[in-house]
Amino acid sequence: MKHKHLHQLLRVASHLMDQAAAEVRATGLDPVDENIQRIGRALIEVIEVQRHIYAAQPELQPKSLAANSRESDANLLFTQVTMEALELEDAGNPEAAREKYTQFIGLSPSYHHREIARSEIRRLS
């Protein structure tokens, strides 16, 4: 269990970041949407590290998060597309970021992920 301590730290960190995003919304810390997006980007990075931990030590993956291969593939694809779209947005190219999400919508079998992509397209418009 060489990654167990790191796994526990990341679970706590992701929980605290989730609470922080809720607190940003509750307190109205301006710019609310941008601040929540910043926290969301950090969460994406944490989730990516967790994914590597679960690949190395599957027994650490919480049973409630265990996904079938189709869901796992959808999660991985969504993470990759989101990271690429965020990079495009940060580089000042929101049109390309919208196109990335639009392409994802045509590929993803996951309704939940497609809805998140649609909301990102609306945000970038």
Structure description:
The chain is an all-alpha fold and 125 residues long. It has five helices and no strands. The longest helix has 25 residues, at 32-56.
Helix-strand blueprint:
Blueprint: H1 4-27, H2 32-56, H3 69-90, H4 94-107, H5 111-124
Helix pairs in contact: 1-2, 3-4, 4-5
Helix/strand order:
HHHHH
Structural class based on helices, strands and sheet pairing? mainly alpha
Q: Count the beta strands.
A: 0
N-C termini distance? 46 Å
- Mean pLDDT comes to 87
* Main β sheet profile: none
How does the overall form come out from the CA principal axes?
Answer: globular
Keywords:
single chain; mainly alpha; 5 helices; 0% strand
Quick summary of this structure?
It is built from five helices and no strands. It is mainly alpha-helical.
